[in-house]
Amino acid sequence: MSVKKQIEEWFEHFHTYPEVSYKEYETTKKISQLLQGMEVAHHTFDDVTGVIAEIGEGDRILAVRADMDALWQEVDGVFRANHSCGHDANMSMVLGALSYLLDKPLGSRIRFIFQPAEEKGNGALAMIERGAVDGVSHLFGIHLRPQEEIPFGKVSPAIHHGAAIFLEGRVIGVDAHGARPHQGKNALDPIFAISQFVKSLHFSPYEAYSAKLTKVMAGSDNVNIIPGTATFAMDIRAQSNVVLESLREQIEKGIQTIRELHGVEITFEWTDYTPAAEVSEEAANIAEKAIIATVGKEALSSAIITSGSDDFHFYTIKRPHLKATMLGIGADLSPGLHHPHMAFNREALYIGAKVLAETLQKASFLD
């Protein structure tokens, strides 16, 4: 069977059987079976999902990462696991690249990291803790891109993701009758104050950033009760890690001031932090040469800058010596990533696998 046909079959399998973060049990088993069939050395873990495989020889190691998990979302009125972020495609392209490389000369060892829980924002950390990038000099990733970024046939050597963090909070005031607001402490007032406060935060206009409320829950079936408790959530993003940290500090100070002003208790915690990309120029240059060699100069796209985030960048945050980049594959993907009915041109899988294989082979022969 041709590698292209195998890639199509792998994608169909992963797409048909999605699994959410840290529950990718059957996905882990399937990848392990495929690697066993290819006679590729690999191992799994007793305490977490994921697979690490390796080919080639030598002291030098480079690596590539594929994320495995699906989202949990509503699809046609039913909540279920759904591969609307394209991780089924990422796994298929990485397995395809591995297949292409089995018959190619290599100048170093190449490690294949099949990582769980990217959507949780901490699967990369789990792999780092388990030695996935120990001894690795260069790290590559790959991801399909929506059509508004690059069209089908174009390939980018780097994706500059932004940083993101989420806040979940709770306001604790005092319930009151709607006719007697002075007897209580309305939990909604400080939440509205927080909403207005984050709109007043300003940084350089050359920096991309945003902070906004994404969830507010308060009250009951009785509309004549002023709610004393409420929960809320915020989504905070920035294109740089420095700006995100400044946003975080100012939001904490603002909440403290609003808490004192309204005389209520406000508790909160920060969750699911993912850092902005730290792209290696050297790694991106390797990918650029591989793109040109595989699909031609006309297919080469410039680096992609996106407000989306990816826990791939924890690898470079935690291991600063790593030279890393993530390739972006044009696929006419629409309506967009995370849309429940996301679709794309599946010929992009073949292009991505070929370009990734060429990138890894070129990187393996670096001095």
UniProtKB/TrEMBL annotation:
Q: Which residues form the Peptidase M20 dimerisation domain?
A: 170-255
**Which Pfam family, giving just one, matches this sequence?**
M20_dimer
Q: According to the UniProt entry, where is the signal peptide?
A: none
What domain of life? Bacteria
Q: What is this protein called?
A: Amidohydrolase
Q: List the lineage, top down.
A: Bacteria, Bacillati, Bacillota, Bacilli, Bacillales
